[in-house]
Amino acid sequence: MADIPKHPDKFEDVLVQVQHDLSQLKYNIEKINVGEKTATLDIKVLDNAISKTQSSIRRHAEDYLKSVNKQQLVLPTIVDIEKQTLKTYKWKPSLESLPDVYSKRKTFGAVFPERKVKPEAAERLAVTKAKGKCVQYLPEVELEPVIKPSLLRMSAQHNIMSLQPRLELHFSKKELDFKPHKESECQAHSESRVGIKVGESEHLLTSLPSLPTQITASDSMDQMETQDQSVDAYKSTNIFPFTIVKGQIDPMAKDFICFKEKFSWCWSNVAEVLNDLTKLLREFAVPFAKVDGEHLIELLRESNYCWRKTLPKAALFSVLENKGEVLELVSRPGQRYRGEGGRDVAATRIQTWWRRYVIRTCYLYYYRRKMAAEAISLSYMFHYQKCQVKKTLQAKRFRQLINYRRRAERLAENWKHIRSSKRTIIHIPSLGFSQSWRLSTRKYDILQNIQITRLCDIRDENVEVIYICPMRLGEDILQYYDNFLRRNGADSSTNQDLPCNKRFLILTPEAVDHFPTRNMCLSTLLKYSPCTLKQIKRQIQGKQAYIVGGVGHEDDLEVADELRVPILGPEPAVSQLYGTKSGGRRIFSEAGLEVPPGKGNVFSLNQLYETLAELIAQNIHIQRWLFKINVQRGGCDAAYCDVCHLPCYSWALRRYQHFGPDLWHSEWVQETVMMKYLEEIPEWLIFYTILAKSSRFQSWSEFLKIFLRQGGVVEAYPPSENVTYVTVDMLLEPNGEVTILSWGDQLHGYCHLDIVGSIIPKTSVHIETLHSICMCVAHACKQNYIMGYVSVGLATFVDHNTMKQKIWGIDLDIGFSDHLAMTQMLLMATGGTLNWRTGCFEVPVKEKCSGQEAEAKRLVDSRYAVVGIRLFHSNLSMLYHSIFLNICKSKCIDFNKKENQGTVFALYDSDDRCTIGMIAVSEDLQGALVTFAQNLSVIHQEILSSKKGEETNFEVVITNIEDMLEVIIQNKNQLED
User: Fold this and answer.
1) Residues with Cβ < 8 Å from 791, sequence gap 6 or more?
2) Which of 167, 177, 180, 158 has the alpha carbon at shortest distance from 211?
3) Which of 286, 561, 609, 914 maximizes the CB count within 10 A of its CB?
């Protein structure tokens, strides 16, 4: 086929007819059923013959295509658009679509005016393929008026190479719009589909219409009009349904043939979609599907299929009329594995899941090991860092302890010189309790500032005081103490500098503002206050100075090391060991002082029950037992319970009377009683235990929790109705000497464990007996390396069996006590002294002699004072201190300096203002008690309000004082009689 055939239309019809006959023949052969078993049909031979025929036809079709492509195309000269003649185009085997210019025929003349094309340009544009050059075209603007014929292309849907006349229709955006493929892609696509078998049903869907080789201008215009008519016909067509049975389309079915003939103009794309749909139905083993032909064409138009290789499954299923049934079948589990290639897909899925499982298992194993390794490494790193920090802190604290001991030795060597020379005392009233105790205590800063009366140490002319305050004080309190100290002959200053003529300075650490709710002890706050530390260093530079602390804490050593001054007190560890209730009992036992029956260091519930049962059995005449928490100061953290509420107590008394005192202490006698006690003690404690201060602990269970956590003491209450408690403060000097500083009988509040004040001097114990007890306790303290201020609590009563006075040691507080601080204020206000030899409180009194003597002689007179340390009333917060003092002054509650009698107040804070201290001084004990009670009554009446729920201990103290006055009056009457 070297040349172009003369009758191309006839040749093309022959090719199409042959292909159609072959396809029909093969389809009929597949439908042949062999009725008899002996009959044999050699289909393979016939199939080979058909294949050879198809190959021959394909070869001739390729030769025909090559001959067509060898034609030379020449562009005519454009002279007049309206008179334009036929324009020959080059055949391009591509799916490229050219733009439609038929609709622009009417406006073409206006857009392109008449013009001529140069011959040179026409010759340059006419290029043949024989010369090996690419065909060049006129610009798109120049080609628009030319009428475009239909292009010839190879059908990619058939196994043979066929040529199809394709009319390029141009729809609106909602209609089908096939975008052109690139020439190389179309050729590769066509070549890839040439080798597919003809026997497959998917390739029987296309037809081979006639292929014109040359098109005239008039024919082209007729074809354009035919296209418009076909579009109109398509818009008015009805639905063209056809069926797909078991994934196969019957090409001879009438409905399919009707659908195929109607849409033959775009059949290549329809065939591709149908191939995808039938393949999908075979994969899911769908037995029957009915296709909506019109919906299929609409899908092609909307999806722009020519630019997409495949459509999604949902779009393919949407063209089915019975898509509900199909989707229900497809959605069944495992349906994909029943269709075509199901075994391979199932095997692939199983292998995929198995590989995923293996890889996931390995990954999880690796991940767990990795996370475990990270956790171990992080834990080890944190542990290592913690150990390093711990070692660093231990080394630092050990170094501070060595420095403390070195300075304490120098302080002991030079104490006599320091005591007699000018010195500076740094008062730090810190309460170094445990963190749990501090966090559970309300108004902790006020509790630490109760010892603000330490300022009265400046009554010694050689002493200067730097007082570290745990809170910001208002100007009213500062002015009050400034006036009080000036009135009693001392210069004062609250400025930053301390001149030589100024005697005291009040400083507040700046860390108070940063930790307002942490309840830190004052030493810790001072440690985190570098500005205050620098200020103290400037004040003590070149002077003899030492620190007087409160309850010992480890931060005391760091503050002392920072200031490079000694501490007048024991090591913090020693203070924490012997300053508790259990430690005090140990010191009293070593001193040979009698202690109440009991046991210390109770840390478990069973130990508490067993200890209590044993003590009750051994001391059957004790009516009340006390439970004290191991705190280092105070008696409010305590409770008590009376044995009379035990159901078996009366039975135990009968057994005691039966066996007698001698046999009662035998173990075999007490064993049964103890077993009975153990059964009843738990319930007895729950229902009959009374808390010393209910505002701190709400119930016995809460008290018991803290009692067992910190440890405690179980001890007996003195077996007497009249019990007097005595407080003695003494100083264990670094050089070994002992000085008794103050003593007095305790004044109680709600119970004997709630200490609110004292009566100075003491009247219940002889001074010599008291002195000897104090010396024994001081000797035991020195043997246990206790130095500094120590407060001893004693209980005295009359034993009914022997009718002799007994003294029990019940409390030992290591540090500067609240009682000693108020005593310092008493001595400052009166100018008196406590004579431990006579046991009297002596004050100087000026009395004029005969008129001939001009000078006055100083005489000494005795006084009695009632000291209230913690007097609480919630309504006091409604009055400022200045208004409160004016009210008291108007009610004649004031101090007379000339007679050394009257009342002095101690103010503790400027914000809460609910707690105050008060000292009443009189010539005799009865007068002092009366004055104190009257003052409380007047203040209570002045600040009393109609609101209920007021919290105060004024009334309880007044009641206790009235009871004491009755006893005093009875004793006087007995003496007179």
Assistant:
1) 727, 728, 729, 730, 811, 812, 813, 814, 815, 817, 819, 820
2) 167
3) 286
Q: Is the dihedral of CA 108, 110, 111, 116 positive or negative?
A: positive
727-761 tens-digit pLDDT: 999 999 999 999 999 999 999 888 888 899 999 99
Same domain, 561 and 602: no
Q: What is the pLDDT of residue 634?
A: 63
Distances (CA, A) of 260 to 204, 256, 263, 308, 908: 11, 6, 5, 22, 108
Query: Do the Cβ atoms of 906 and 918 come closer than 8 Å?
Result: yes
What is the 3-state secondary structure of 771-810?
A: HHHHHHHHHHHHHCCCCEEEEEEEEEEECCCCCCEEEEEE
Sequence-separated (6 or more) residues with CB below 8 Å from residue 571 = 401, 404, 552, 557, 785
* Spacing of C-alpha 604 from chain mean position: 34
Structure tokens at 945: 């309000």
> What are the residues facing 857 on neighbouring strands?
847
| 548 shares its domain with 620 | no
Position of tokens 């399919």?
256
- Tell me the three state secondary structure of residue 61: helix
H-helix or E-strand containing 294?
Answer: helix 293-303
First to last CA, the chain: 166
Does 867 fall in a domain?
A: yes
CB–CB of 288/245 below 8 Å? yes
Secondary structure of 876-924 in the HEC alphabet? HHHCCHHHHHHHHHHCCCCEECCCCEEEEEEECCCCCCCEEEEEEEECC
Q: Which residues contact 662 (CB under 8 A, 6 or more apart)?
A: none
Domain with 88 in it? 1-166
Helix (H) or strand (E) holding 847: strand 840-847
Quick one: which of 882, 890, 585, 575 has its CA closest to 714? 585
530 and 616 share one domain:
no
The verdict on residue 316 lying in a domain is no
- Residues for the chain: how many in total? 977
> Are the C-beta atoms of 580 and 812 separated by less than 8 Å?
no
Say what the pTM is: 0.66
Residue pair 42/48 in contact by the 8 Å Cβ criterion: no
Q: C-alpha distances in angstroms, 103 versus 86, 228, 236?
A: 19, 11, 22
Which of 111, 145, 166 is at the close of a domain? 166
Residue the block writes with tokens 């400046």: 458
Amino acid at 296: L
Residues 7 and 120 occupy one common structural domain: yes
Token pair in block for residue 299:
């899908």
Give domain status of residue 679, yes or no.
yes
User: Which residue among 166, 191, 223 closes a domain?
Assistant: 166
Is 394 within a domain? no
Tokens 């006599």 belong to 416
Q: How many domains does the chain have?
A: 4
DSSP-assigned states of every residue in 445-467: HHHHHGGGGGGGGGGSTTEEEEE
Greatest CA separation found in the chain?
175
* Helix, coil or strand: residue 497: coil
Specify whether the CB–CB gap between 744 and 560 falls below 8 A.
Answer: no
pLDDT in tens, 352-407: 999 999 999 999 999 999 999 999 999 999 999 999 999 999 999 999 999 999 99
Whether 603 and 501 map to the same domain: the answer is no
- Specify whether 432 is located in the same domain as 550: yes
pLDDT in tens, 44-72: 666 676 777 777 776 776 666 556 555 44
Whether 132 and 45 map to the same domain: the answer is yes
Neighbours of 254 (CB within 10 A): 9
